[in-house]
Amino acid sequence: MKLFVDTGNIKDIEALASLGIIDGVTTNPSLLAKEPGDFRENLKRICAIVRGPVSGEVIATDFDGMMREGQEIAALDPYMVVKLPLTRNGIRACKALSSEGIRVNVTLVFSAAQALLAAKAGATFVSPFVGRLDDIATNGMELIREIVEIYDNYEFTTEVLVASCRHPIHIVEAARLGADICTCPPAVIDQMFNHPLTTSGLERFLKDWEKVQAALTTK
Ligand code: G3P
Q: What is the domain-level CATH number for residue 135?
C-alpha cells in the first residue's frame, strides 16, 4: 500500500520524505491556505521533494473554470494530479481532463455510488473520507470495503486513496481491505512508529551493551 502525506507544509514533507516512506502528497484548499508563499510555487517544490503524485485542488465549481484551473494545475509539474470535487461538473471535468491524459483525483467522496461515478469518469484516484464519516457516526471503513469490492468486480483501474485518516488504525484497516493508498497528516504517520516495547526494548539492549563496553575498557 502506498502512503501519501496529507499536508501543504514543506518542512513536514521534507522530514518524512527523507525517511524514504512517502509515495506522494495530497493537499486541499484548507491545507494550502495555512502555508505562506505562492501556492503554485509551493506545489512545485513539493513535487521536486517527493517525486510522486501531488494532488492540487481546483477552487472553481463551474465546468469551464474547473477545466481551466485543472489544466493550470497539471501544467505546474508532471507529478501534479488535479483534485476535483464529486459534483456533476466535477465528474464531467474528470472525464474531459482524463481524456486529455491529465490525472484526476476525485475528492469529497462519501458513498460507494459516488465512487462508481468517479471510476466511470476515468479518475486515476478516488478519495473517500473515512474520518469525516466516522465523525457523523457512520463507519468510514465500511465504505472502503464496498469501493474495493466494486472496483475489483469490474477491474476498474481507479486507485482507492483513503483520505481523512485520523489514526494508525485507519491505515492498518485500509491496508487489510486492500486499499491502494492512505493519505495521512504528518502526525498520524509519526504515530505509526511508536510502540512502548520498541522503546523499552532498545533501552535494554543499549544498557546491556554498556556492560560489555565497560568490561572491555577495564581489561
Ligand atoms: O485532503 C482531504 C482530507 O484527507 C481531509 O481530512 O481530516 O480534514 O477530514 P480531514
A: 3.20.20.70
Query: Exposed (0-12), middle (13-18) or buried (19+): which is 63, by Cβ within 10 Å?
Result: middle
Has residue 213 been placed in a domain?
no
Burial class (CB within 10 angstroms; exposed 0-12, middle 13-18, buried 19+) of 30? exposed
| Residue to substitute in 133, 164, 170 for testing ligand 1 pocket (most ligand atoms within 8 angstroms of CB) | 164
Identify whether 80 is part of a domain: yes
Residues of the chain falling short of pLDDT 50: none
Q: Which of 3, 4, 5, 6 best tests ligand 1's pocket when mutated (most atoms within 8 Å of CB)?
A: 6
Task: Please count the structural domains in the chain.
Answer: 1
Q: What is the pLDDT of residue 23?
A: 98
- Atom in ligand 1 nearest the alpha carbon of residue 27: 1
Residue 212 resides in a domain? no
Please tell me the predicted confidence (pLDDT) of residue 216.
Answer: 82
pTM of the entire predicted model: 0.95
CA of 129 to the centre of ligand 1 (A): 7
Range of the structural domain that residue 185 is part of: 2-194
Strand partners, 129: 163
Residue 210 inside a domain? The answer is no
What pLDDT score does 65 carry?
98
